[in-house]
Amino acid sequence: MRIYLDHNATTPVDPVAAGAMIRSLEHLFGNASSVHYYGQQAKSALDDARTSIAALVGAEPAEMIFTSGGTEADNFAIRGVAEALEPSGRRHLITSGIEHEAVLNTFKALAKRGWRTTVLPLDATGIVSPDRLREALTDDTALVSLMHANNEIGTIQPIAELATLAHTRGALFHTDAVQSAGKIPVNVRALGVDLLAVSGHKFYGPKGVGALWVKRGIRLSPFLSGGKQERNRRAGTENVPGIVGMGTAATVALQKMDAEAVRLSALRDRLETGILASVPNTQVNGAREARVPNTTNISFDRIEAESLLIALDLEGVAVSTGSACSSGTLEPSHVLKAMNLSSHRAQNSIRFSLGASNTEEQIDHVIAILPRIVTKLRSLSLAGSR
Ligand SMILES: Cc1ncc(COP(=O)(O)O)c(C=O)c1O
């Protein structure tokens, strides 16, 4: 039995989306900028996909810009606003320590170019405190970038409240909705944000395609120079099959969202309760209330997460850790570290992220095999420390 529990890393392409992609590869080869029949066929497919992806986030189609994925959408939002606002004299940017590298490393790059950056600290809930944001905001703040749902622990930020705070000081607000779009309702107006990033492969669309929503009237310096595609905002011939696949996946995700949220949160809770009950010295990381329905992050005391990941993989179960191996040493997850968890706990945590293919039988199988694997790893680590 192979069990995939790593849907926050990526999802398989939905069969309906795959079918639409294949048809577009076979029949829609025209350049969407060409005025003839072939070009207009491709353009019409892009228009349909734009309508679908806009519907996923409650936006107007004309406000959506297609990108090469979530990373480009985040980069474009942050660099685009920073550059556009440079002449205004606002030179301060705010984010949090639990953001994806697409945001954190963009902040680091801008800091090197003279921008003042604030990375908000968090507590063990993994939720950004509005008070912390209020304290950090200045009249100099150009942009606040805070993610909607976190990829490692699944916590959902109070974006509407945070965006209102930013706006009271005249700052713009970007949210990375890569891990929320397709899982929970996302509505740009209800969230009150100015920019919002999504990525196709997190909701059963293809990889290498995403979108940035930019509120009408917000000025953004283009990231790529070239042709006039995407209303002069993102140059380059559009990836028609990818965009068609993402658009179709968005429609399917929207149709299934309510039922899947109920199904997945029941499975996730079953997994979580089962592990906590059958494996001693385990703890859930982050607030359990405000979370996307498919994610849990659990620390296993006295276990190196990487060893558990490999042991589970050998048994056919795919999970992930937020830890990264750099130059032979295991770097604890930057998300768990930003939540002020001990580096030990940040190194022994595993993310389980559920999705379409998972069943109750699979979850029960994982709960059944874990105690044996963990006991074995713990006895090995005990033997090693003697
Ligand atoms: C929260 C978040 N933002 C951004 C990204 C990057 O998206 P992409 O893989 O489409 O570049 C990811 C993907 O892991 C993510 O989880």
Short structural description:
The chain has 386 residues and is an alpha/beta fold.
Structure description:
The protein is of the alpha/beta class and 386 residues long. The chain has helices at residues 15-27, 37-56, 70-85, 101-112, 130-136, 159-168, 188-191, 229-232, 240-278, 305-314, 334-338, 343-347, 360-385, and strands spanning 3-4, 64-67, 92-96, 116-120, 141-145, 172-176, 195-199, 210-214, 282-284, 295-300, 317-318, 324-326, 329-331, 349-353. A 7-stranded mixed sheet has the order 2-8-7-6-5-3-4, with helices on both faces. Strands 9-10-14 form a 3-stranded antiparallel sheet. Strand 3, helix 4 and strand 4 (116-120) form a beta-alpha-beta unit. Helix 1 packs antiparallel against helix 9, helix 2 (37-56) runs parallel beside helix 9 and helix 9 crosses helix 13 (360-385). The two termini are 36 Å apart. The relative contact order is 0.16. The model has no long low-confidence stretch (mean pLDDT 95).
